[in-house]
Design a protein that fits this description.
This protein has 229 residues and is α/β, with parallel strands linked by helices. It contains six helices and eleven strands. The N and C termini lie far apart (50 Å). This is DUF3854 domain-containing protein.
């Protein structure tokens, strides 16, 4: 596959060049910016033995210059209002979610690590004139310390601009028994709407197991938790 990439010259100017990269048979998932332009390609290999998702890159990782941000998956229909923006984990899931929830714009991040795309995320929210973000946590996320930390790093980042933060909650505490966000939308006809709630950051924090809360508040990343106050 021949794909465009950016190369910095001796003057610090980025220019486009073409690079030949071999990609195994896979589904290609385009990462897009706020304007819908493709910034990178994510792959989901057909071979189940391979890594679940990889960037199309010579080293299987990719960051956008000049801020070394991971690409985001900004998905929406032309008629989707931008005031409320959904945050979901992953690229493919972001496209599925945007199709099922055409009433709002969607941003996906690989691994749900939005904080690793801080310039891209804040820039997108500003360009979309977003007033509120709603995080849709995956099932079982609250019992995973690393995932909870990723969420609160994102909350801390978004709290620095004038955007409200809400968390969609339908009781998805267990990974094996509960539904992920896209599954919930597909099942809305069977799920009682009263089971879907929008929590504040503090209300969401209350669902996190006590041991994980104590570990995070006493750890080296405790500086990201002033958002709870």
């Amino acid at each position: 596959m021949c794909v465009p990439s950016l190369q910095m010259d001796e003057c610090g100017i980025y220019t486009v060049k073409e690079t030949n990269i071999y990609v195994k048979p896979a589904m290609l998932i385009p990462a897009r910016n706020a304007e819908g332009l493709i910034t990178a390609l994510h792959t989901k290999p057909d071979d189940n033995a391979s890594a679940k998702y990889m960037w199309v890159s010579s080293n299987k990782s990719f960051k956008l210059p000049p801020n070394d941000n991971f690409p985001l998956f900004c998905c929406y229909y032309d008629w989707s209002p931008g005031k409320t923006v959904a945050l979901v984990e992953g690229g493919l899931k972001a496209y599925v979610f945007a199709h099922l929830a055409a009433r709002m714009k969607v941003i996906g991040a690989a691994g749900g690590q939005f904080w690793q795309s801080h310039h891209e995320l804040i820039g997108t929210l500003v360009r979309w004139n977003a007033q509120e973000v709603i995080l849709f946590p995956d099932a079982g996320s609250i019992v995973n310390r690393c995932v909870v930390l990723d969420y609160f790093r994102t909350f801390d980042l978004v709290s620095k601009i004038d955007v409200k933060i809400k968390i969609a909650w339908w009781g998805q505490e267990e990974k094996t028994d509960d539904l992920d966000p896209d599954d919930v939308l597909k099942s809305l006809s069977q799920v009682e709407l009263t089971k879907l709630s929008l929590l504040s950051v503090c209300e969401f924090w209350a669902f996190v197991p006590g041991e994980i809360r104590r570990n995070l508040l006493e750890g080296k990343h405790k500086h990201v938790f002033p958002v709870l106050t």
